[in-house]
Amino acid sequence: MDSIGILEARQKQVIEKKAGESQPEIACDTTSLSGSVSQRACVFCGSRVVLYPVADAIHLVHGPIGCAAYTWDIRGAVSSGPELHRLSFSTDLHEMEVIYGGEKKLYSSLKELIAQYQPKAAFIYSTCIVGLIGDDIDAVCKKVEKETGIPVLPVHSEGFKGTKKDGYKAACFSLMKLIGTGSTEGISKYSINILGEFNLAGEAWMIRQYYENMGVEVVATLTGDGRIDAIRRAHGASLNVVQCSGSMTWLAKEMEAKYGIPFIRVSYFGIEDMSKSLYDVARHFEDRPEIMEATKKIVSDEVTKLYPSLQKFKKALQGKKAAIYVGGAFKTFSLIKALRSIGMSVVLAGSQTGNKDDYNRLKEMCDEGTIIVDDSNPVELSKFILEKEADLLIGGVKERPIAFKLGVAFCDHNHERKIPLAGFEGMYNFALEVYQSVMSPVWQFAPRKGGAL
Amino acid sequence: MKHEHAKSVTQNACKLCNPLGACLAFRGIEQCVPFLHGSQGCATYIRRYLISHYKEPIDIASSNFNEETAVFGGSHNLKVGLKNVSQQYKPQVIGIATTCLSETIGDDVPRILREYQKEFKNGTPMPLLIHASTPSYQGSHIDGFHAAVHAAIKTLATKGQKQEQINLFPNMVSPADLRHLKEIFADFEIPLMMLPDYSQTMDGGPWAEYHRIPPGGTPATAIADSANSRASIEFGSTIEANKSAAHYLDVMFGIPAYRMALPIGIKASDRFFSLLETLSEKGRPEKYDDERRRLVDAYADGHKYVFEKKVILYGEEDLVVAITAFLREIGMIPVLCASGGKSGMLKERIAEIVPDMEELGIKVRDGVDFVDIEDEAKVLHPDLLMGNSKGFTMSRKNEIPLLRLGFPIHDRFGGQRMHHLGYRGTLELFDRIVNMIIETRQNASPIGYTYM
């Protein structure tokens, strides 16, 4: 087989870290190259992932059936109560509506759903075609809002109008309309919102518990286990704690501008970052030293409990090499640290939506020879996994078969996972999952490990 | 909540969109990259959906529309995309399917492809370009599947020397079914042109190095020769003539077309095997007599478990028709035959197989979603649900066991290796049905029987 090249138009989005010399900055923040088989989805996807976990609202996808069908119950975002988010609603547009407009169908669909499910709010996602046929979804939303008395929020997520990141913004824009409409009475001065935590496998519950044990009130989680009423009073919190910075930094900045709420960026993956995300909040409330004291105790208890249990994994995994390709770049920072803590190095680090700052930081963090890549594709990922002899790939559903085909272990760090990987407990799960996949005896049969083809 | 009256919204759809089927079918052509002309999301979502069932890499390229493309047309993006795919994958074929976006802006794809072929005439070897029109606002995934097969035949079939081979258009069946069909033809010693054939591309072995395109699939040259075959066999009960590849070859090249239901159950399999006997002018190999005998024997051994058990059956219309025929020959009653598809032919086809459907209380509904089906389930109280894994939500809520078959199966392992067709596939289905009923009874019994 001839060697795999990188498409000319993509070469600036791939760099190999070299020591000593100043390297050109990685190109990023662009739309995907046509024909490159990007792992990204679209604007709609960005909006859908951000709002998905809001469990007491209906999520109606305005467009042909595909967009709703492919996102039905797609994420592992769990709810402690209502589960409207796990249903899939579509206006299922047909040819006639494409020609004559879909507003009528949107209106009657909304009325039917609101009557049937009595939701606290409704999100209406526009898809590609709605952007073309020119349905005035804002007007329909306004009308239904008036008639039903619940917030009916348009999300302008036409697939082709930008990248996934623009979808994040469109979702945050809708959230901004809700925030500020609820009462902030009784909210403590020592209070936060958890932003960019989607309660996959119950992670937000764990995080929330840590903060509450520190003596900090959590006003709203956006959007994990999300509730409309909580989001409405989110402006009453004293601090926004932002994870998954790609999707929620915009919202945090808007809230800072409008309500004067400062924000910090955190990550809940790995011991180091998890501890830091608790300490940073405690430091913010330094006028109440009890919070810091409680935090120290929590971290110390958790780490004491966790550390010995990781040693078995570390011993087995020492010297193994990992490749990381995930949605947001911020997660890669934590993963690199987490992998190092169990003895592994990183030979490839990439993301779908990282920006310049993210990649510069990645470059600083990574070892020499590490490939850093923006908006990659299966061909490139495979090339580097093989060339760098990775033992593990961390990614999502679309990356999984690449790893398994090549006889490489895999850890799902995306929205579909069913096991919490955040928090101290999550670090144990993460190490266990990596261990179980990397150390499996099945790889002895893989051709690249000498198995017969 | 009643849903019998006209309603606007679709809840938990029992269908997928047109381009998904096209991508799968294109995946069954050798050295072919499926290419969606539309937004990046379509390709990515469809890849994700297919991967969760087949557990195989499936690269689908996209022309990646942006706002300018939507305003000024997709010509530039499509050409750049084709060029990049050619460079990165070195395919022999690119299967281009449209989406709601490119169809709505009215891109003239055949013209763009002609221009592309002219502009890059002296470049790298030009892949064959097949274009299927698959707007997501029409039909469902099965229409896209047939559209891609039809387009491949229409584009590639070329008159030449008469050949001994037979064309087989197997419909959207599992890789295991495709392998079984190939085995049957080989045993009959009939040369076969089967389209599509994703038996290997969607269920293949490990790789020592990265394959840009996985091995397997029907070669373009074989597809070209479909115009010279002795006959065409097409599985499907609701494929309109103008969407049928077999019909096209009949009209254009005089290739006799044998269009029949998917061979599920003894009677339908008998019809298929006797057609092969006629076409090959020899008896079926002993192996298949054995398979048939084992199936008849199993029917006898298991008949009491299944008799007059009520089933709600859903899925693509052709699958529903074929499974209905099978259920009737083992005495089960498909109280509801449902599909998210809407060819308009479902009821008629089922009435042909089950003339006493009204007496038996068999209901047929097309164009339904899972909430409609669930509403029916609450009234009909079936013993079993049968269909793809998307029925799990209602299965769990209403405590009705679900027998998974067809596509997609996202919550169980090995959906791609499940058989449905022929005596062998029928036996596998029958075993699973009987076992599910036994298991339900065993679990429900307070005694804990160890013989069932």
TrEMBL record, chain A:
Coiled coil: none annotated. Residues 42-438 form the Nitrogenase/oxidoreductase component domain. PROSITE patterns: NITROGENASE_1_1 (PS00699), NITROGENASE_1_2 (PS00090). Keywords: Nitrogen fixation, Oxidoreductase. Pathway: Cofactor biosynthesis; Fe-Mo cofactor biosynthesis. The keyword Oxidoreductase applies. One of its GO terms (molecular function) is nitrogenase activity. GO terms for biological process: protein-containing complex assembly. It comes from the Bacteria. This protein may play a role in the biosynthesis of the prosthetic group of nitrogenase (FeMo cofactor). NCBIfam families: nifE. Belongs to the NifD/NifK/NifE/NifN family. This is Nitrogenase iron-molybdenum cofactor biosynthesis protein NifE. It comes from Chlorobium chlorochromatii (strain CaD3).
From TrEMBL, chain B:
Residues 17-437 form the Nitrogenase/oxidoreductase component domain. It comes from Chlorobium chlorochromatii (strain CaD3). Belongs to the NifD/NifK/NifE/NifN family. One of its GO terms (molecular function) is nitrogenase activity. It is an enzyme of class 1 (oxidoreductase). Transmembrane segments: none annotated. Coiled coil: none annotated. Its EC number is 1.18.6.1. This is Nitrogenase iron-molybdenum cofactor biosynthesis protein NifN, putative. Keywords: Nitrogen fixation, Oxidoreductase. The keyword Oxidoreductase applies. SUPFAM superfamilies: Helical backbone' metal receptor.
